[in-house]
Amino acid sequence: MKPVFFTIPWLDLPVYGYGVMLGMAFLVGWYLVAYLAKWSGLKEEVLYVAMTLAIISSLVGARLFHVFSNPHEHWTLLRILNIREGGLVAYGGYIFGVVAGVWYFKKKKVNIWAYVDVTIPGLALGLFWARMGCFMRGCCYGHRTDSFIGISFPEASLVVEQHTHRGWPLLENGWSTPVIPTQLIASFTGFVLFLITLALVAKKRKERLENEQAKKEGKELKPLRILDGHIFLLFVGCYSIFRFFIEFIRDDGGRGTVGLLSTSQFIAILLVAFVSWMAFYWVPKHPYQEHVSSYRAAQRRKQKKNKAKNKKK
């Protein structure tokens, strides 16, 4: 746990560990997504603008979600803009970032689902880095525990600050009583999702290339197992389920509630319902026309021919 990475000489300006990890999330994600887009045959220039808008929007969304989740605090414009003090909600960042990117893709009239799919490994890897930043700052922690996985945080951490505010005892050295490191659990989950979605992007590209080759050789096209949009929906669904359950062992303050659920759990339920409907109903029936896969294009042509024959009869 390292809240301050280093201090800039002469300016006496601290550089926080959370900010460094968040910067790593954006930097690594940017180059990874740019490479995957080029590798998948997509227009990089379109993606660069979309990613810039998504990054800015994600910071705005993450901050606004924190503000709305804590209406009891006294918010001023200067305090809202001061993100150096912390207070960013991952869900807000994801939602605002995705909406901004999708808006731009739609404006440029490109295959939205194909572009969004290649961004997902970058988002998952960003989750890995961002939660490492949470661990360094000592936020987003779990319940107190006596188990072997428990980790104590030093005096400068948010854990100690909130435990002291609640009147809970600290260790003799001033550190917090051990808590479940939910930040590391989330970080590990992000890395696993990164590996899975990266493999799916590669498999999707392989299937597309095989069908393109088969089309050139006049062979029968194979049905695609991974449709445009499925990687995005899989990530959102898996993260939402994970977030719903990890909320039961989170114990940091300022997360907001909706009835008996935390704000994040409520959003998770809505997202799981949404992606389920999209994955099993909407996406299979609404492929993008211009860049539609070879197999689905052939299937749609057959359907149109059959409809035309039926009308003549």
Keywords:
4 strands; two-stranded antiparallel sheet; 64% helix; single chain; 313 residues; elongated; 4% strand; mainly alpha
Outline the secondary-structure elements.
Layout: E1 4-8, E2 13-16, H1 17-39, H2 44-69, H3 77-81, H4 90-107, H5 112-137, H6 158-165, H7 182-216, H8 230-246, E3 257-258, E4 261-262, H9 263-285, H10 294-312
Antiparallel strand pairs: 1-2, 3-4
3D structure, described in words:
The protein has 313 residues and is mostly helical. The chain has one domain. 64% of the residues lie in helices and 4% in strands. The protein has helices at residues 17-39, 44-69, 77-81, 90-107, 112-137, 158-165, 182-216, 230-246, 263-285, 294-312, and strands spanning 4-8, 13-16, 257-258, 261-262. Strands 1-2 form a two-stranded antiparallel ribbon. It has a two-stranded antiparallel ribbon with strand order 3-4. The longest helix is centred in the middle third of the chain and has 35 residues, at 182-216.
In short:
This protein has ten helices and four strands; from the N terminus they run E-E-H-H-H-H-H-H-H-H-E-E-H-H.
